[in-house]
Specification:
The complex is a heterodimer of chains A (260) and B (261).
Chain A: H1 2-20, H2 22-50, H3 58-78, H4 85-90, H5 94-98, H6 104-110, H7 116-130, H8 136-162, H9 164-167, H10 171-185, H11 194-201, H12 211-218, H13 222-247, H14 256-259
Helix pairs in contact in A: 2-3, 2-7, 3-7, 3-8, 3-12, 8-10, 8-12, 8-13, 12-13
Chain B: H1 2-14, H2 19-26, H3 29-47, E1 51-52, E2 55-56, H4 57-73, H5 77-87, H6 90-94, H7 100-131, H8 139-168, H9 172-186, H10 197-205, H11 207-211, H12 213-220, H13 224-252
Antiparallel strand pairs in B: 1-2
Helix pairs in contact in B: 1-7, 3-4, 3-7, 4-7, 4-12, 5-8, 7-8, 8-12, 8-13
The chains are: A mainly alpha (260), B mainly alpha (261).
């Protein structure tokens, strides 16, 4: 219970910090929504010319892009340090979080909020509405799918960024993995053959951030619900365990003073 | 001009200081090319023809490889200027005896060359393995020359955004929009040949097509008229943008407020 209170307090502080620069927050939010809209135009052009890809059409793209963008936005807004956890580890800045009597991983991840994440989150909802399948129960499914996609994405980031415990500066590798995850999540899953799909459900679990949540948002089936919940829970458990295993190897030159 | 040549050379050597990082950053071309391979293989198969609007499947992949090389190699100049304004370090550039814009042009070109080379090598290796050899040897030199024009154009547009930092400080929203304009109107993810004709006409009249589509299309269909036409478009846009850039720089420098340094 105290952890929940603590994380709510961090988010409140992050929000207050963002509101201190309202113009910047709004520019980032609107800019990101515009950015996503412009990117999506490419898919509109593509499907205008080629109609569908093995049964995957523009409406599917709206839903997939919507779920992925909202999931990405949630992670950026609420766990912004997931994107630079590796950097925090290599620069010894975990000292600050270790010196406080709070869950280290959760505290570190939630300590930063990326304002543009709000733009991604809102754009995702608009994209889902534009897909033409909007109903209130579909919206509920979309919300659950987005939450699950966010857990998958955050877990994936924790795993790749935690590699810094073992290999030091891993920014190239984690950047590559993050790019691959996002790119694969927003492409039609029907273009991949079975061996590629195995990769997209395991090493780079992009299917669990894009295609599977999108399929659940479109229509309820117990099978996709089970895939979503199992996939997200399993990845989260793996991610937390990898982080804590790596934490035992953590060394630093003490950055407590500079952080405070 | 000698000092700018030296700046270029220093940056060129600097970019080789960490070869591991140079290669590591370029590895991102692998997932991009692999996903393009999957997408266009299925699309060509569904279309039931070996050629769409003058491009075969291997030509499309080679086109996209060059387009990605140009995009992934361009330096994030707007970001560099914006960060320098925010932390005040721009003061050290402004008080040196060289032109601010030419300084950034020299260093950004120095930063680009090896990054492009590594991207092109890795991208070519993968695409060659996936779809076979590139269509024509003539494509290499013609593309190389127009790539220089493409990066100069990119410099002009990025510097514009960077100069906006003198007034608004944070230019990330402008950078995202510029990147997406280059994606759509440059034909980065879909060759412009597959666009509706009205959109092709608009895209080809703007500088973005000369930055990506022109060099990449030359690589797969190298002809001297197409080469000259791409060069001419690049020259016109570079001239127009360079004049506007100089005027904007002179106006914006008076708005600059430094936060530290």
């Amino acid at each position: 219970m105290s952890s929940i209170k603590f994380i709510l307090a961090i988010w409140k502080t992050n929000l207050q910090a963002a509101m201190e620069y309202r113009a910047s927050f709004l520019t980032q939010t609107i800019g990101m929504m515009l950015n996503n809209t412009m990117y999506f135009i490419i898919w509109v052009v593509f499907f205008d010319r080629f109609k569908d890809v093995r049964g995957w059409g523009l409406s599917d793209m709206y839903v997939t892009f919507g779920v992925s963008a909202s999931a990405f936005g949630l992670v950026a807004l609420f766990f912004g340090n997931a994107f630079n956890l590796g950097d925090i580890i290599t620069k010894g800045r975990l000292d600050y979080y270790l010196s406080l009597p709070r869950p280290v991983l959760m505290h570190a991840l939630a300590s930063r909020s990326v304002s543009s994440g709000m733009g991604d989150f809102l754009y995702g909802i608009l994209s889902f509405i534009a897909s033409g399948i909007f109903t209130w129960d579909a919206m509920l499914r979309f919300s659950l799918a987005t939450l699950s996609g966010a857990v998958v994405f955050a877990s994936f980031l924790i795993i790749v960024q935690s590699l810094a415990f073992w290999i030091g500066n891993s920014s190239n590798l984690s950047g590559l993995a993050t790019n691959a995850m996002i790119t694969f999540a927003i492409y039609p899953i029907t273009i991949f053959d079975n061996s590629a799909k195995i990769i997209l459900f395991t090493i780079i679990p992009a299917a669990l951030m894009g295609a599977v949540p999108a399929s659940f948002a479109r229509a309820f089936t117990w099978q996709t619900l089970a895939q979503l919940l199992l996939g997200a829970s399993l990845l989260l458990i793996i991610a937390v365990n990898i982080f804590h295993t790596g934490l035992k190897l953590y060394e630093s030159g003490s950055a407590i003073q500079t952080e405070i | 001009m000698k000092k700018y040549w030296h700046l270029f050379k220093v940056q060129l050597i600097n970019s080789l200081a960490y070869p591991g990082e140079l290669i590591g950053r370029s590895l991102v071309i692998f997932p991009f090319m692999w996903i393009f391979y999957q997408l266009w293989k299925v699309t060509f198969a569904a279309n039931g023809s070996t050629e769409i609007n003058g491009l075969t499947f291997p030509m499309t992949l080679w086109y996209l490889m060059i387009a990605e090389t140009i995009e992934l190699s361009r330096p994030r100049l707007a970001n560099t200027i914006s960060e320098a304004v925010k932390d005040g370090s721009i003061a050290y550039t402004l008080n040196k005896p060289y032109n601010f814009l030419l300084y950034h042009f020299s260093t950004s070109m120095g930063e680009t060359i090896f990054r492009a080379l590594v991207n092109a090598l890795l991208g070519s290796a993968l695409v060659w393995w996936l779809v076979g050899a590139p269509p024509s040897l003539l494509g290499w030199p013609l593309t190389l020359l127009t790539m220089l024009g493409a990066w100069t154009l990119n410099f002009c547009l990025s510097a514009f955004i960077g100069l906006a930092a003198f007034i608004v400080e944070d230019t990330s929203a402008f950078q995202w929009i510029y990147q997406k304009m280059a994606f759509i109107l440059g034909g980065l993810l879909i060759p412009l040949d597959f666009y509706p004709e009205w959109l092709q006409a608009i895209a080809k009249a703007l500088p973005f097509a000369s930055m990506t589509y022109g060099p990449a299309r030359l690589f797969v269909s190298p002809t001297i008229p197409a080469f000259l036409s791409t060069l001419a478009m690049q020259a016109i846009w570079i001239l127009v943008l360079a004049i506007l850039l100089t005027i904007t720089y002179r106006r914006n420098i008076s708005h600059l407020a430094l936060n530290g340094g």
